[in-house]
Write a structure and sequence with these properties.
globular, about 25% helix, single chain, alpha+beta, 7-stranded antiparallel beta sheet, about 35% strand
Amino acid sequence: MVTLLTLVMVSACGRPEFTYVRDRDGTTYFKVPASFAQIDASSLDLALSGNQPDTQAALQRERRVWATAFDQAPEPGIGHLFDSRSPFVYATVHKLTEEQRATVSLDRLRDFILPVTEEMRTAYVTNALSTGRMPLFTGFEPISDRLVLLDNGARGVRVRFNYQIGATIQTFDHTAILDEQGSTVSVMLITCRSSCFAARGAEFEEIAASFKLLRPRG
């Protein structure tokens, strides 16, 4: 379940300016403009994981994974993660298993949702072709890649890149942070078509900058 904070910034005309969001454990926080509609991300998360609904793997994942999505399209929908003229924000927090904690790395954070590193892009294409399917994502273009280092010892990456999906170019801004204990990964993915991203970069920068880890005092 997504926690929406009741506190909002109010614009001069009296309407809320932002929606503030926390994950169910209250450790990951961000804000989106109030014009974004929240949508159910459960089916999107299942699609990204490859798990089938109602399987043991899906049930275990539900206990470990929190996710939400916000869409600014006139008719919001989860399909806009991969093709939208309007901004789409997907956020997720994963409690890592012992095996995952032992293997997490900065490159793993880069590849947490989509293939970004050369190794994972090659594996993605090879796997798609081996099953007789054409890859959905083609024409990868890196834009930026930087480390994220937080005062409390948490660390992560923020990468921006393009993929061609069908006839369109989609830009993705991906932030992934491993907490100081190495036990959870918090991810935010902001996306829209490349022309949209070029025109609204300052707005997306404000959303990404609000993505933080919170820890209780004491």
